[in-house]
Amino acid sequence: MNHAAIVALIIAMSGPDRVDPEQLATAVETASNGNRDWAALLLTVVAHEASFSDRIRRNEFRDKEADPARVHGVLVHRAWGLLQEHRNLNNDSVWGSLDLGVQVASGSRLLHRSYWTCARGYPKNSPPSVWVSFTLNAYAGARCSAQWQGLNDRLATFNRIRARI
Questions:
Q1: Number of domains in the chain
Q2: Which has fewest Cβ within 10 Å: 50, 59, 98, 102?
Q3: 16, 68, 93, 115 from 38: Cα distances, Å
Q4: How far is Cα 66 from Cα 117, in angstroms, rounded to an integer?
Q5: pLDDT category, 141, cuts 50, 70, 90?
Q6: Predicted confidence band at 131 (pLDDT cuts at 50, 70, 90)?
Q7: Angstrom distance (rounded) from CA 141 to CA 34
Q8: What CA–CA distance (Å, rounded) separates 124 from 21?
């Protein structure tokens, strides 16, 4: 895995309102422990959930973003940060943090839980597309083997990113 390649990828895949590419690359490298596949998975989720947007990192959402809901007539955003996590017991102490490293680390922990939720559902020698799709399904709250709109796009993004870093 190459830090400069991750930075270049973030710059190439994002618009003018992008997170700091150096900080995101460092956070991804730290959370992935140098595992190229895991880094590609984290970057895939950030690309699809937040388009690398610094506005999203700052939790400055538009009305239709961040899984909005009306609670007693008030619009609330149920998701947080670059990986669009919902609050739960595992992230309650950090939920809402603006710190990029905290967001990536928390998202990585949730992705690990998603991975292990579905890990028994496929053979150990399966190609990455199998474990990645199962992990993304669990992350999205879907059945491990589900097919849904956007899954193939995410797998294609994962493969593009993995080839570049």
A1: 1
A2: 98
A3: 26, 29, 24, 11
A4: 24
A5: very high
A6: very high
A7: 27
A8: 34
Cβ burial of 16 (10 Å; 0-12, 13-18, 19+) is: exposed
How is residue 15 written in tokens? Answer: 């618009």
Tokens 């973003």 label which residue?
A: 65
Q: How far apart are the first and last CA of the chain?
A: 5
Residue 109 token pair: 């922990």
> Rounded to whole angstroms, how far apart are CA atoms 33 and 165?
14
Structure tokens at 136: 């993304």
Q: Is 34 left (phi over 0), alpha (psi -120 to 50) or beta?
A: left
pTM: 0.93
Q: What residue numbers bound the domain in which 29 lies?
A: 3-164
* Distant-in-sequence, close-in-space partners of 108: CB < 8 Å, separation ≥ 6: 31, 32, 38, 42
